[in-house]
# Entry
Amino acid sequence: MKPIGVGKSRGIQGTITVPGDKSITHRAIMMGSLARGKTVVKGYLPSEDCLHTASAFRMMGLSIEEGNRGGPARRTGGDESPELRIEGKGLRGLTEPSSVLDLGNSGTALRLMTGLLAGQDFFSVVTGDESLRGRPMRRVVDPLRRMGAEIHGRQDGNLAPLAVHGRRLKGIAYALPVASAQVKSALLLAGLLADGRTVLTEPIPSRDHTERMFLGLGIPLEIRGTQISMEAPSEFSGREIEVPGDISSAAFFIVAATIVKHSELTVRNVGVNPTRTGLLELLAEMGAEIRVENRREIQHEPVADLVIRSRPLRGIRIRPESVPKTIDEFPVLCVAAAAAEGETIIRGAEELRVKESDRIRTMATELSRMGADLEELPDGLVIRGGRKLSGARCLSYGDHRIAMALAVAGLTADGETIVEGAEWIETSFPGFERLLRSVAQ
Ligand code: S3P
# Structure
């Protein structure tokens, strides 16, 4: 188990970029693979999660080449711009994989692939690592079955490995019981191969990268409030897709620069899609100073540069409506709340219990080990901030975001913090440790 060690920081200073957005990279690989002709994905995220998605398509007969403007992809660092070149063969151009498709640690890859494979005319099996094999899949399997899919797995299809017998699908009208972009996207991908209309309604809007990418590729989609409706296109063509920096990776640096005194940090080229910016809004409410500059749009996705200065924070009450757009940022938001004066209450966030780890339990346990005052609720946490943190030996529980959040907490703690299991950071943020060391004084 690879540990990382972090000491108390005297300031976070500099200008950085973070690696490409994970959600957009997965979708770009999938859509490039279903398109006809060449797709170039610029600035894609070369992390383990996304590389698993690419290898799944290679196993289904596609050519996907990694490169960095002609050279081999470098897998570390935040400022190079790696490229992926995909030769798509159209919506029905995949061939039956002769072995199991292993999607590693990635819930996004496994759930979206299940939707994409349900309507293909071949048999496939999708699986993942131990953590992924314990995460709930009925949320995608149930509505896919209603579309006519035949999917088998343990607990009546709730647990991977999932065996997918490709079937002719039909569009359905479906109200999602949980706000989940993975469920929504799995059904939209299934809708690409379904007869008739697929109409989805979300309880609270979740990240809309799939919808934006469909529109960018010319796939007709109607969006009215929280309702999305589509019909299968006959074909669509590949194109260049540019991936902005991942705000969920920038989040660790945004919180670090906010809570470590004497900090001023610029993060360039970050995706600021409004379905992802909950952290920026909540930190602003807590008193943070985050300037959003140079706003622009790259292929239907809003992008900006962020300038962060350290500020004292105060606790807030987080409403359930803010949860979906902050969902991956809660581990590091807990760190900000522990540094704030007063109480922060997070409710309506029970989804955190079924992420790469039970993030309510893991953050409560590990930050308490450092001296913070956190109380678990069934659907969130109460964090009584302002306690002095002390360095401790902490665990990642095989969860990349827990490892990075604890490293950020270590920057404000007295003494050294060791985070065990830091190798999991590779699933989403290659080069995290090097980038952190380059800005932490
Ligand atoms: C993602 C959706 C979210 C998020 C995950 C990425 C996506 O999951 O937590 O990291 O790319 O669609 P849920 O859909 O389960 O909320």
Confidence is low (pLDDT under 50) at residues 70-79. Residues 22-34 form the longest helix (13 residues). The radius of gyration is 21 Å.
